[in-house]
Amino acid sequence: MNNFRFLKLSPPQILVLGFAAVILIGTLLLMLPVSSTSGESLQFIDALFTATSATCVTGLVVVDTGTYFTVFGQIVIMVLIQVGGLGFMTMATLFALVLKRRISLRDRLILQEAMNQGSMEGIVRLIRKVLIYSLVIEAGAAVILSMRWAFDMPLGRAVYFGIFHAVSMFNNAGFDIFGDFRSLTEYVSDPIVNIVVMFLIVSGGIGFIVMSDLVDYRRRTRRLSLHSKVVLSMTAALIVIGTVVIFVFEFTNSRTLGPLNFGGKIWAAFFQSVTPRTAGANTLDIAGLRQASQFFIVILMFIGASPGSTGGGIKTTTFTLMIGAVISMLRGREDIVLFRYRLAQERVFKALTVTLLALLLIVTVSMVLSTTEDRAFLMILFETTSAFATVGLSMGLTPELSQAGKILICLTMFAGRLGLLTLAYAIGPKQGKQLYKYPEGKMIIG
């Protein structure tokens, strides 16, 4: 890690180059003949797409992970998911801690940028917690899933499946190795698989800061931070609203909830509401959903997970802040107040910037894909939003993308995982504080 100090690069630039390097290494490994069951080398563009999807913990695939790749190839994908989900700097910190090497100031600055923190205070302690929480949760889930799947397959295979899917789902990647692009559709009504996978998705999506807050709740003053309150309340609200909407819209759909009993309908609606938290796994045929449900999932994917998590999207806190700004404006108030805390105007500007940049990217990519891919616009919009929010849900377009479409989706996944502000700062570093103000002007709004 100390080698970073010799590079005259800003933390955002190092993050961008670091993720690009991980993707390149993954691409080369997936192109090896030993990675494919056919013994032939995967095409560069398809290997690049798969490596990008894994490192950016998205889950969109152009070849079926369960049938195309050998165990070696699948392990490469699993490692890319783990590195991409926790961040390559987090993994580098792990090795530094194991080797008892000092974490330099520059390394701490990069970690601060990677974890989206406001300061360096306690950043190494947070990284330790991230590693411990991830290992404990993934190991526990892997054991439960292995025991459940041991009833359906040989024990060794069940253990392997348990480990792979625990890593994939906790990191909100959505990759599966069941084959034939069917994800978890065979377990649509299975309580154990549903509960464990949804727990992995939510725990990976709420963010490590919130997780740390919850773990330390009893040891401290029994109070949660404002950030944790906003994340937990908005996450719960989105899941409940999503479950109700999907349950109502799909109740009579013969391709989704229709054939299931009432309990199965509840499990399926609940799961499809949780997975747009940027997980990508599905227990229903996404292409079989009604258009209203598909568009609603686009909205859920756009919002995404929470800051400092393994997920993407504009984040639940950004969405909450935007709603708070609208409510404050409608009530004629200048300040945005959440849980009796007033939020700085700078937070509002940042939330607005993130939201508008995300909309601009999605609209632009969707328009370009509309010219390169001969598909319905909703399908293109769905796939684009899934790529940006690093979700991985698909209506079936990704395996049929043109070469230009694959490259465009790769860039969208990369931008979604790194964050648009991080990319913007990497291209053009932040300017210093402005020492003067222009005279105030007036213009009509609305």
UniProtKB/TrEMBL annotation:
**Quick one: signal sequence residues?**
none
| Localization, UniProt | Cell membrane
Key word Ion transport present: yes
Residue ranges annotated as transmembrane are: 12-32, 44-63, 75-99, 130-151, 192-210, 230-249, 295-327, 348-370, 376-395, 407-427
Name the UniProt key words of this record, in alphabetical order. Cell membrane, Ion transport, Membrane, Potassium, Potassium transport, Transmembrane, Transmembrane helix, Transport
Domain of life according to the entry: Bacteria
State the membrane topology.
Answer: Multi-pass membrane protein
Q: Does the keyword rRNA processing apply?
A: no
Task: Give the InterPro entries listed for this entry.
Answer: Cat_transpt (IPR003445), TrkH (IPR004772)
One Pfam family from the UniProt entry?
TrkH
Q: Name one GO molecular function term.
A: potassium:chloride symporter activity
PANTHER family named among the record's database cross-references: KTR SYSTEM POTASSIUM UPTAKE PROTEIN B (PTHR32024:SF1), TRK SYSTEM POTASSIUM UPTAKE PROTEIN TRKG-RELATED (PTHR32024)
The name of this protein is ATP synthase subunit J
